Amino acid sequence: xxxxxxAHWIGxxxxxxxxxxxxxxxxxxxxxxARRGDWRVPERILFLAxxxxxxxxxxxxxxxxRHKTRHGQFRFGLPAILLLQxxxxxxxxxxxxx
Length: 98
Prior knowledge:
With 98 residues, the chain is an all-alpha fold. It has helices at residues 2-36, 43-64, 72-75, 77-93. The chain is elongated and about 50 Å long. It starts with a helix and ends in a 5-residue tail after the last helix.
């Protein structure tokens, strides 16, 4: 995994950037819909975007739009997802994945 990340870091970083942007935009769209009383983005979709690599964008969206900040599952869950993903990345880079 370390060799793959070393060879494809630009693609991996681009993936995380794109998924993070999508998660950020989803947070903004959900906040806008909440204010208008429109149909909302399901919470499982917001978490799925974070789990797929968009945790940085989801966290930034949560803070920027002041959205879901009172929900414990988001306030603690999104940082936990980000920390787990960072730990996994460090483990892979240290040679833990072979």
